[in-house]
Each structure stands twice: as C-alpha cells, then as structure tokens.
C-alpha cells in the first residue's frame, strides 16, 4: 500500500468544544466543515478529523480513549512553545521528555510532551533531534 494522505478521526460527545481545540488552540487550517464533522490539515498530506458522536457513528466514540495523535514539530523550541501555550491555556500538559541515548528500547532523538485534550484524548507534540528519524518524519 502507498497512501497519498492520512486522516485520523476522533469521535466527540461535545463536538463544538472539541472543534475550538483544533481551531483556536492548535490553529489548524479547516479543510472540511460539515454540521457533524470537521477535518483540519496538519501538514501537506496529514489530516485530523472530529466527528459529532451524537450525529454519526456513536459506536466509535469509546469511553476508553485508545488513541494518541502525535504532531511532529520542526524543532525543540517549537515543542517547548507549544507546551507553554498548553499550560497557559489550562490544559494538562506533561513535562518535556527526552529519550535516553544508548537505550535500545528508546526512540533515539525523540523529545516530546503529552497533553490531555478534549474528552480525554491524548496528544503528543514531538520533534526528532540528531536522529535518522528526523529525515523520515520532518523531511530534513
């Protein structure tokens, strides 16, 4: 399989509040806006969507949020700026974590923090420093 793009859909009980997270906090570009669904561009070929669970496919809106949406940012400064923005906005943002060098179980060069977003969904904001993974995920 060689996909040309990717969309991750999340299902929310409070659709409008969740949309404000993507619009106002993350400041993503809206590419589809329907009464029951919105899709935002994360990068050239990556998208995230929110669905109003009360209107469509309620069976996908699980009480246990088994999803993690990771955003790859250009550098460590951008990750820390997003973390500070999250804290200022009152979101539950964890500490900035750097994967240990030389640990075979670690993702080398990964620096990130996790945030609890609308309705308990987890979001990760990350960057890769001095790692071959930087070229794969960031194109440089």
UniProtKB/TrEMBL annotation:
Q: State the CDD domains in the record.
A: VOC
Q: Which SUPFAM superfamilies match?
A: Glyoxalase/Bleomycin resistance protein/Dihydroxybiphenyl dioxygenase (SSF54593)
What is the protein name for this chain? VOC family protein
């Amino acid at each position: 399989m060689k996909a040309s793009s990717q969309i991750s859909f999340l299902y929310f009980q409070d659709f409008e509040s969740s949309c404000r997270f993507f619009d106002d906090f993350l400041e993503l570009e809206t590419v589809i806006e329907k009464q029951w669904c919105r899709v935002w561009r994360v990068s050239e070929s990556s998208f995230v969507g929110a669905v109003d669970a009360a209107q469509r496919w309620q069976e996908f809106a699980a009480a246990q949020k088994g999803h993690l949406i990771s955003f790859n940012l250009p550098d460590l400064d951008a990750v820390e700026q997003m973390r500070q923005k999250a804290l200022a906005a009152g979101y539950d943002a964890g500490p900035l974590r750097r994967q240990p060098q030389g640990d075979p179980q670690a993702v080398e060069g990964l620096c990130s923090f996790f945030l609890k977003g609308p309705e308990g969904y987890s979001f990760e904001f990350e960057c890769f420093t001095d790692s071959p993974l930087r070229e794969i995920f960031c194109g440089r």
